[in-house]
Amino acid sequence: MQQCLKTRPTDIFLASFPKSGTTWLKAMIFATLTRTNRSIDQHPLHTHNPHQCVMFMDVGFATGRSQIIENIPSPRVMSTHLPYFLLPDSITESNCRIVYVWRDPKDVLVSMWYFVQKILGGADKIATFDQYYKNFYEGLNSFGPIRNHVHVLGYWEESKRRPEKILFLKYENILQEPVKCAKQLAHFLGCPYSEAEENQGVVEQIVELCSIKMLKDLNVNKDGYPVTTGEYISNAYYFRKGDEAGDWKSHMTQEMAERFDTMIEEKFKGSGLHI
Ligand code: A3P
């Protein structure tokens, strides 16, 4: 992918660490870009899982399906879980826009634990939560050790340097102020909401369309498999709680949480980023 991906100036990339809100942002970006040519009631998100609407480009390349990526009409939207420093030069050296979504790593950990259980078919097949926590704390997790924060810091620093290139969003902020974030996203993507759209409540409709409440109950998201993630991850696995922040409180003791936060804050020193 690093050698072969040819970007187009209109390409948009969604980057995230797994379990940070990828599915949500795929829906938001797709719905924002396609809002003018479709009525919200008949929107493809009613019948397609967000992962079918926006493909993981890394999985596409890894499974020999890069031609699908080539064939996507412009403006293409693609997603990746790669850290910034591993992105192809054709992305980092271009002016293509990147949206990065970040989430409290403690909730990422909890979400990942449940996700892995679903993939493997039950709690008895993976570590207990305490063991899973310990592994995460020590940096033993997929997609790069969360404890060194290379993933988030790479995008964070680049978003400070080039805010027109990278929009850095926090999952918790979107939950708190979805309309404000939806407007910020549309503005960044180059298709801001018009006054008429705002007056007609289009922003609220897009937010509602992409909410977990709405998406989770759709037939398409109760079953089936997204093309790129393969047949071991059901569409349904991408939706769990999602409507409130801080599920870690039901899984970690105060001491576990503080230990985790201290480790994170240590790495963030001087960066301006905080949980
Ligand atoms: P929880 O397991 O904490 O509920 P990803 O999409 O990166 O795999 O992240 C999955 C997490 O995002 C899950 O978190 C899931 O429930 C949540 N999620 C999925 N769709 C969402 C949406 N539309 N709005 C808010 N959260 C959503």
Automatic annotation (TrEMBL):
Keywords carried by this UniProt record: Transferase
Which domain of life does this protein belong to? Eukaryota
Per the UniProt record, the lineage of the source organism begins with: Eukaryota, Viridiplantae, Streptophyta, Embryophyta, Tracheophyta
Which stretches are annotated as coiled coil? none
Recorded hits in PANTHER family, A to Z, give:
SULFOTRANSFERASE SULT
Query: Looking at the keywords, is Transferase present?
Result: yes
GO MF, one annotated term: sulfotransferase activity
The EC number(s) given in the record are 2.8.2.-
**Record-stated family:** Belongs to the sulfotransferase 1 family.
Which residue range or ranges hold the Sulfotransferase domain?
9-272
**Matching InterPro entries, A to Z?**
P-loop_NTPase, Sulfotransferase_dom
State the species of origin.
Answer: Rhynchospora pubera
What name appears for this protein in its UniProt entry? Sulfotransferase
